[in-house]
Amino acid sequence: MSADIEQCTAPMRTWWVYMVRAENGHLYTGISVDPQRRFAQHQRGKGARFFNRSPAAALVWRRECADHGDALRQEIAIKALTRKAKERLISQLDEPSSTAARD
């Protein structure tokens, strides 16, 4: 590479793992670079067949991740939790890395 050509790097995007509560009370876990936009898509019935049974009601939890791989690992770990453990995670609003959005 020539010394006068700078290396191009794509800006790093922040990835999030998030949970949405459906109208029937069930929890959906996913990842996105924009959880609020993704939640709006879920409300319109786009993106996840999960919401065919019951519409998306609320974005109840989200956490910033180091990168896409970290977000995927956290998504898998959260999906493996019991409902009770997921509800505990949602209730931990004081944790600095998590943010709850309640509408």
UniProtKB/TrEMBL annotation:
Domain of life, per the record?
Bacteria
Limits of the GIY-YIG domain: 13-88
- Cross-referenced InterPro entries: GIY-YIG_endonuc, GIY-YIG_endonuc_sf, UPF0213_domain
Gene3D superfamilies according to UniProt: GIY-YIG endonuclease
Which family, according to UniProt? Belongs to the UPF0213 family.
Name this polypeptide is given:
GIY-YIG domain-containing protein
What is the scientific name of the source organism?
A: Halopseudomonas oceani
